[in-house]
Amino acid sequence: MVQSATDPVALTHEPLYLHGIELYRAGEFFACHEVLEELWTPMRGPHRLFLQALIHFAVAFYHQQRRNPLGAERQLRKALRKLERYLPLYEGVDTATLHREGRECLRRIQAGETPEPPRMLLQRLLDS
User: Fold this and answer.
1) pLDDT at residue number 8
2) Which domain holds residue 30?
3) Cys bridge to 62: 29, 44, 87, 96, which one at CB 3.0-4.6 A?
4) Pick from 28, 31, 32, 70: nearest CA to 53
5) Total structural domains in the chain?
C-alpha cells in the first residue's frame, strides 16, 4: 500500500518502508534504494524528504561498496543535511544515532578510510 496523500499514514505501516530498512541493515544498499524509491516516488507531504534522506544513505554506501569514495561522500552529505529536520526520532528510526554515526562515517571517508555504515535502528512501536 503506497500512500500519495499530503498526510500519509505512518510509514511504520508501509511494508516497503520496513523492507527497505531490512535491506539496508543487511548491507543490500542497491536493493534498499530501489525499494525505498518505489515508496518515495508518489509520496507527498512530510515523509518525502525523510525517505529521500534514507535513500541517500543507501546510495552512499552502495558507492562505498563499489570503491567510489567521492560518490559516497557526496551522497552522505545530502543524507545528513536532509535528515537534520527529523532528529532525534522519526517514523520509528533513531535518527539521532543515524545522523551521529553518519557524520563519523563522512569524516572517515574523507580521511581515506572505509567505515562500516551507520546503524539504521528501528524502534519497535507498541501501537502497531
Assistant:
1) 56
2) 11-110
3) 29
4) 32
5) 1
Quick check: is 6 in a domain?
no
> How many Å apart are CA 52 and CA 36, to the nearest integer?
8
pLDDT digits (tens, 9 = 90+) for 16-35: 999 999 999 999 999 999 99
* In the block, residue with C-alpha cell 563499489: 66
Separation of alpha carbons 77 and 72, rounded Å: 9
User: CA 33, CA 30: separation in Å to the nearest integer?
Assistant: 5
